[in-house]
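Pinned message: reference record for Adenosyl-hopene transferase HpnH
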Amino acid sequence: MGIPLRQAARIGTYLVRQKLSGRKRYPLVLMLEPLFRCNLACAGCGKIDYPNEILNQRLSYDECMEAIDECGAPVVSIAGGEPLLHKEMPEIVKGYLARGKFVILCTNALLLAKKIDDYTPNEAFTWSIHLDGNEAMHDKSVCQTGVYEKAVEAIRLAKSKGFQVSINCTLFNDADPAQTAAFFDEMKELGLNGITVSPGYAYERAPDQQHFLNRTKTKELFRGILARGRGGKAWPFTQSRMFLNFLAGNEAYKCTPWGNPTRTVFGWQKPCYLLGEGYAKTFRELMDDTEWDKYGVGHYEKCADCMVHSGFEASAVDDMIRHPIKALGVAIRGVRTDGAMAQDIPLDNQRPADFVFSRHVETKLAEIRTAKHGSNSHKPRITRTGGTGKPGPEPMVAAE
Ligand code: SF4
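Predicted structure (tokens):
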């Protein structure tokens, strides 16, 4: 198991309490993006294509604490951007631990050796190092050589200092099942506490649009990988077996986007970690005012290929609670990697994509400039290219 027993028990208790209270929608993991600034520019990343004024924004310590107090999730996953660029990060982690939360700090590890002594090992705190495969796969994914080596050094360092360390691995359509399985074997040898794996989401603003997986390819890829590791039992995945079972095409879940509510410098992101279709000022507003039925596979074009853990892990956990015998069978036997796949959700009636990115950027820039100059007389300037220089799907607001 990739999750310590105490953590699994506490999360289990939380879930049972939510079920008994009859709550229809509840959060499992707060996805916190306290900044978008990063020290890498990965090909498949759709999170950092903003003007400098937005990249320079940070959620304060108080805003980060308010986010968890508002939503009450038992787990916080801190991503970004690169969280280690945030000066208040050690205090933010301490603040969450003091509230009894499990904290996952995601990092590309480039700054880990420099910053590690600002943190203390704790059973409820895990470093989650970004590693998208072996050296060739990862360095290609992050568009920079030498990053894999630094990440592996950082894993060894963190383990030597007594930290819990996992990796988060995003796979694209050029992933080879045998190579990926061998990579998981190597990671296990390093003594990792967990492996979080997911297919990449096809971010509309990612520089590389050619290598995202579609649903069929995702299922085939995961069957190929899991077949080489006793149906997934060979590796310490942090995700539920039922989520892996879904990735292998044995279930056709609807997503549960409210399971991983996302707080960024824009506010609470609607509807999920992957899509920024709107923003709410409070968690309550996010839960009450989001038109949830407008999103998800079969409902919305941008969701068609999504099988990402932030959308579907909570669906898998819900299935596990509803059908414990089935879940036990998958846990004992491992994920089935052959035979017929579950009938997937039809896409015939999905609504077309809305392109709303520039409108949100424009609103945020006006807000920043109003706060800075006391007036909104500074109108943002619109250009036709994205912040990374690539043509965007819609006009991009320029940094000044
Ligand atoms: S399928 Fe769900 S989790 Fe995935 S992008 Fe759509 S709303 Fe978000």
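Pinned by admin. Summary line: The chain has a mean pLDDT of 91.
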